[in-house]
Amino acid sequence: MRRAVTAIAVVVVFVFGWFMLHSSHSDKAVAVQNVVRKPNTLTLPPNAPQLAYLKIATVEASDIPALEPLHGRITYDGDVTARITAPIAGRVTIIRAQLGDRVSANQVLAEFDAPEFAQAQADARKAHADEHFKKAALQRAQLLIDGGVIAQKDYESAVADYEQAQAEAIRADSRLHNLGVSSAGTFALRSHVSGVVTERNINPGTEIQPDTNAPLFVVSDPSHWWVDIEIPEADLDKVQIGQRVRVQTDADPARDYEARIISIGRVLDPNTRRIQVRCTVDDPNQKLKPEMFVRATPLGGGYTSPRVPNTALITAGLKTFLFVEVNPGEFEKREVTLAFRGRDESYIKTGIADGQRAVIAGALLLNAEMQGD
Predict the structure, then answer these.
(1) Which of 71, 120, 237, 272 is most buried by its number of CB atoms within 10 A?
(2) How many CB atoms lie within 10 A of CB 331?
(3) Model confidence, pTM
(4) Number of domains in the chain
(5) CB-based contact 278:230 (threshold 8 Å)
């Protein structure tokens, strides 16, 4: 009985396997039979497995670059940025601005307990007292000179003393104004510009020295940045002031930022044989961050061409081809000429138009399928 059951089970497994094998071959045969090959055209059925390996995208026209993308980095725009340090030593007592706060020019960022500031206050009071004394002396001298009691030189000496005392009082007041005075009479650290607090390097109780290198606060406008790039010596003739530059980041590679060259360095780095070029870029959405690495591409003279990744191109001898989707599942192999070929992307001069759909990944698979491989 057991032998009979075992034999039946073996027969069932064999029949099921034979059925599945032939069914699979049959499906593949149907798929292969449905592939239509014509000169320079390949049509795949909707259920063709090849479609899963293809990536198709609409081709968009972009400005033709003047150079390959160059490495660069985002830096603060110095025209809208203030790196704020303390002019005197002291200890932080109150912090009035936090990271990310928007502040206005002359707004208090922090307050210090500073002995030097107390000395400046004492100097100001002393200067005003001396000014008051010299003014009274001048008034007495005026009465005496009018009565013919004193000589002209004594009167002139009183005038000079008062003017000197007045100048010293102005100097002492200017010193206090530059240091900053809060309502409590402590030293007030103020912002020099309007913007957003992007860096804060102090905490309550921190001892501050005027000769520190790091700023206590950085206030900047995060919608404006500089992009610093380095141009090879051999390509200096391809960049100029005012030229447009396309900027891309790894954080958002699909987005292009438009920058413009505002300065070209005059000193060549003897080690890298490159010159620093600075661009300005607007970022109204505030996605860029300082020290972020970018790819900067100087653009040409305003000419545009469809842009495709190099994975879309097939090279055969001296000719270059790509596949264009003329209808869903129908692909045409076209010869194209290149206006510019970069390391990762190329710009098509003829062969495809802006808005058409091209195979940007899997072109080699379609090419082999067209040959019947």
Answers:
(1) 120
(2) 27
(3) 0.66
(4) 4
(5) no
